[in-house]
Amino acid sequence: MRGASAASGRGPAASPACLSADPRGQPPAIPGIQPGPGGGAGAGDSGEPARAAAAGEDRKRNRLPDHRRRQDGRGARAGGLGVADGAGRRLPQATGEGGRGVTKLLASVTNDRELELAVEAGVDIIDLKEPRTGALGALPLAQIHNLVARCAGRCPVSATVGDLPAEPLQLAGAIRQTAESGVDYIKVGFFSTHNLTACLQAIAGLGEDCAVVAVLFADLDPPLARLGEFADAGFRGIMLDTAAKGGGGLLTRIELSRLGDFVAQARALGMLNGLAGSLRQEDIPRLVPLAPDYLGFRGALCERSERIARIAPHRLLEVREALTRSRERAGRAAAGG
Questions:
Q1: What does DSSP say about strands 185-189 and 272-275: parallel, antiparallel, or unpaired?
Q2: Which segments of 38-132 does DSSP mark as H helices, in order?
Q3: Of 62, 208, 279, 290, which cross-links 94 as Cys (Cβ 3.0–4.6 Å)?
Q4: What are phi and psi of 302, to 5 degrees?
Q5: For residues 179 and 209, is the Cβ–Cβ distance under 8 A?
């Protein structure tokens, strides 16, 4: 397997626009990650979030800012796991209403070994996460910085901010701190509709360079009727996950038809969309025909299918190959073959 690319030669990333001073002052320091869903089960608020500023409304939410867009090609990878084809891979762009993209693979990793396995296997986006501390457990900020530098542009990288409560200043502060690492996408969980409008307003003011992805949870009564509010707040993407792990995967929590509606609505709004939540290899043939932009995996990639265990190279290959086969079948079906 090829060693990690050094970060040298890659100049320090420009500070994202979202790191500019907040007129309300800097938020308080972010406390330790909470292992359980935050925000409580308060009733949903009824207010409409403020529209994003004119520049935000004009943004193309479904792609990276120009100065952080990846090159289309990367150097050929070493033989390593035997599936890399040398072609550059990027997270797909939402295709707009009526369009259907190619479903890509997101793999959640926790350390440099797993990052290298994911790069060599040709995953489409690497997600930095600490599964021991929650559904969206966050790695320490220093480790996120190190892993982004180690990846060195070979693959888009996302990172979670942790299972945080629905407190606008706390969420905005966590996004700012994570953005300093140069990560491409920042995933923020919404565990209830408590304080949702205020949180969306706080995130909407962070600037165009913060490519924020909202994560909703199928087992926590997600606000699927309010996806337009996330688009108005400038979110680049939205995904549906599960908060409880080990109690059944996504397809045991929500009907397949509702997942199809979620994907179609997100696509019509111009947002990247993804499905995750204890997904298994055998779920892939059922989900790919819905044409989500990506499917996210952790447990299915790990030894004994345990999300807190290490990624096993053969499991990563099996999921990658199963996704490739399902995409080919879906393509033939769409073409009438």
A1: unpaired
A2: 54-58, 112-121
A3: 62
A4: -100, 160
A5: yes
Dist CA 274 CA 266 (whole Å): 9
Active-site residue, selected from the candidate residues 60, 104, 129, 245 = 129
Contacts of 256 (CB under 8 A, 6+ apart): 286, 290
The pTM is what?
0.73
Give yes or no for residue 151 having a pLDDT over 90: yes
Integer Cα distance of 227 and 265 in angstroms: 8
How distant, in Å, are the alpha carbons of 22, 172, 279 from that of 25? 5, 11, 41
* Domain boundaries of the chain, sorted by first residue: 65-334
Q: Is residue 320 pLDDT above 90, yes or no?
A: yes
Tracing tokens 């970060």 back to the chain, one arrives at 7
Percentage of residues in the chain having pLDDT higher than 90: 64
> Is 245 an annotated catalytic residue?
no
Long-range contacts from 258-265, C-beta under 8 angstroms, 24+ separation:
258/224, 259/287, 259/290, 260/290, 261/224, 262/224, 262/227, 263/290, 263/291, 263/292, 265/224, 265/227
**What is the pLDDT averaged over residues 220-228?**
97
Our answer to whether residue 187 is catalytic in this structure is yes
By C-alpha distance, which of 136, 72, 62 is closest to 101?
Answer: 62
Q: What angle do CA 273, 276, 282 make, to 5 degrees?
A: 120
Q: Which of 132, 189, 181, 187 is CA-nearest to residue 158?
A: 187
Q: State the CB neighbour count (10 A cutoff) for residue 248.
A: 13
- pLDDT for residue 29 is more than 60: no
What is the rounded distance in angstroms from the CA atom of residue 168 to the CA atom of residue 146?
27
CATH topology of domain 65-334: TIM Barrel (3.20.20)
Residue 244 structure tokens: 């409880």
73-82, 220-229, 296-305, 315-324: least confidently modelled range: 73-82
Structure letter (DSSP) for residue 302: B
Q: Which of 60, 104, 187, 245 is the catalytic position?
A: 187
Rounded-to-integer distance, Cα 104 and Cα 294, Å: 4
Q: Could you tell me if 265 and 85 are in contact, meaning their C-beta atoms sit under 8 angstroms apart?
A: no
